[in-house]
Write a structure and sequence with these properties.
Blueprint lengths: L1 H20 L8 H7 L10 E11 L7 H21 L2 E6 L6 E7 L4 H9 L2 H4 L3 E11 L6
Antiparallel strand pairs: 1-3, 1-4, 2-3
Amino acid sequence: MASKVIPALFLLAFLVIVTVSFHPAALQSISTAVLSGHRPPVADGGMKCYWMVFLKGGPHRDQTAAAAANIQTAHMQHIRQLAQSGKLLVAGPFGNDGDLKGIFILDCRDSLEAVQLVKEDPAVRAGRLRFEVLPWWTEKNCVFK
């Protein structure tokens, strides 16, 4: 009987130690907001939330010149489609060789919609670009419709 009790006691002691030492921490990033469709609170009704997308160099930028050109053509077509749908208000590249490649400003219901639209971009799907989405507030009718 002792051969069954001793391992059970060790297991119980291990579980107590793990339980006592475990301290979950909240993630401090947009990913939590993205998963919940989070829209930050607004103090008054005079502000409107847009979604600022920072496009950054992706992990797969080693395509041939021809493949990269095809991806860029598809990327531009995606931008035109988003603009025609009214979801994309601003798009453009930065004029440097840094990691930050460009921006989008999207008019979406929430971050989930913004992330889904950006994930459909051929340059993101190919890994040439990665992105970060942040809420961006401005006075209604101040900058955009």
